[in-house]
């Protein structure tokens, strides 16, 4: 009796472990393209050496891929004929960067292992390797994603979080993707690095409401310094997501900025507007912050959203179009 129970329980555990492993695995290309991870790392290091600002850009590209139709490289597809693709969505147009780097990596990997490595895996690896080269953060990238064939601006407009969203809207968007409030607060910490166009700041600085043209929840001295960098009507100048530090470095400073009302977006400010989220912000802002460790866990989880595996989808030959 007891032995049957043990066998059954053990059997269930083995099946569970296999089903997790069968999804994605760091060993996925070990026999089919053994050098893929090393080669992607090498190519990406070259790109980041030439332009360090592309590392946060690739991390954002991975995030925007995963939130729309799962991590299936749909963000890389050019517009379908007669329709508008994800590249045309409000949250992507004029601001998402890094497509040419992914195309370069894909071309070199195709030359090495034709038809084997998906664009979705190349994007996930490139984001990690870019941030590894940027410095201060690293995470595991289990592989085996396959590529989708559909891209839609309407879906991206629905699924990507807007910078003016409040806590409830944001947590609902993340929940729909299987991510918790904690995942959301930790992943938002990516805004400790990277660039923003002044376009994204115009409303908060100059057009907030009829009675208060500048958002009163921004620290007044910080708002004044932002206005010096982003003049009214300037949609093009790039400013740093964290302009409070001398160089763009990976650190928990985002959380200090949120608490001091020195973050760029209403969505960042929202991270302290619920007791649950605020507690997480306070923990990240302590000495010996667990931020990087937590981020590694959360971004790996993000990389599993809605993945196509096995016989689903395809391995695109070119990332910008279906086969
Ligand atoms: C919580 C909801 C979020 C909102 C509303 C949001 C919004 C934005 C906006 C508006 C920009 C500036 C775009 C521009 O003006 O060019 C930006 C930049 C950026 N975001 Fe987010 N974001 C969110 C979450 C995330 C997450 C989860 C990640 C990554 C895990 C991320 C990573 C980045 C990075 C790295 C940049 C800089 C990109 C670059 O340098 O090109 N964001 N975000």
From TrEMBL:
Q: Which cofactor does it need?
A: heme b; Ca(2+)
Q: Explain how, and how many, cofactor molecules are bound.
A: Binds 1 heme b (iron(II)-protoporphyrin IX) group per subunit. Binds 2 calcium ions per subunit.
The record lists substrate as bound by 161
Pinpoint the Plant heme peroxidase family profile domain residues.
Answer: 23-323
Please give the Gene3D superfamilies that the UniProt record associates with this protein.
Answer: 1.10.520.10, Peroxidase, domain 2
- Any idea which positions bind Ca(2+) 1? 65, 68, 70, 72, 74, 86
Q: Name one GO molecular function term.
A: heme binding
A biological process from GO: hydrogen peroxide catabolic process
The protein's matches in PROSITE patterns, at most eight in alphabetical order, are given as:
PEROXIDASE_1, PEROXIDASE_2, PEROXIDASE_4
Q: Which residues form the active site?
A: 64 (proton acceptor)
From the record, give the cysteines joined by S-S bonds.
Answer: 33-113, 66-71, 119-319, 198-230
Q: What is its main location?
A: secreted
Q: Which UniProt keywords apply?
A: Calcium, Disulfide bond, Heme, Hydrogen peroxide, Iron, Metal-binding, Oxidoreductase, Peroxidase, Secreted, Signal
Q: Name the enzyme's class.
A: oxidoreductase
A GO CC annotation recorded here is: plant-type cell wall
Location in the cell reads: Secreted
Instruction: Detail which positions bind Ca(2+) 2.
Output: 192, 242, 251
What EC number(s) are associated with this protein in UniProt?
1.11.1.7
Q: Which InterPro entries match?
A: Haem_peroxidase, Haem_peroxidase_sf, Peroxidase_pln, Peroxidases_AS, Peroxidases_heam-ligand_BS, Secretory_peroxidase
**Catalyses which reaction?**
2 a phenolic donor + H2O2 = 2 a phenolic radical donor + 2 H2O
Residues annotated as binding heme b are 191
Site Transition state stabilizer: give positions. 60
Query: What exactly does this protein do?
Result: Removal of H(2)O(2), oxidation of toxic reductants, biosynthesis and degradation of lignin, suberization, auxin catabolism, response to environmental stresses such as wounding, pathogen attack and oxidative stress.
Similarity field: Belongs to the peroxidase family. Classical plant (class III) peroxidase subfamily. Belongs to the peroxidase family. Ascorbate peroxidase subfamily.
Its recorded name reads Peroxidase
Q: Which organism is it from?
A: Marchantia polymorpha (Common liverwort)
